[in-house]
Write a structure and sequence with these properties.
Elements: H1 2-13, H2 21-30, E1 39-41, E2 47-50, E3 54-58, E4 75-78
Antiparallel strand pairs: 1-2, 2-3, 3-4
Helix pairs in contact: 1-2
Length: 79
């Protein structure tokens, strides 16, 4: 889980998400055993979703660019 604790803040930053220490610890413990369809909430209404082959970090709707409805600026980490 230590490796995940180093990676998650950098991965989340690509989606404009800032993780606190609790979110980092939660994501690091969850990721190795996560299965498709599972998700965990992060502070600021962001979340991480596990798909069959990726993890998707989604920023809070309020953090998205004005006028967009496409769901960006998510960041997708390929497995």
């Amino acid at each position: 889980a230590e490796g995940w604790a180093v990676l998650w803040p950098a991965i989340a930053a690509r989606a404009g998400v800032v993780m606190d220490r609790r979110g980092i610890a939660r994501a690091a413990a969850w990721a190795p055993g996560a299965t498709a369809g599972q998700a965990i909430p992060l502070s600021g209404d962001a979340r991480i979703v596990r798909t069959a082959s990726t993890w998707v970090v989604s920023a809070a709707p309020s953090a998205r660019a004005p006028g967009t409805t496409d769901g960006g600026p998510d960041y997708i980490l390929e497995q």
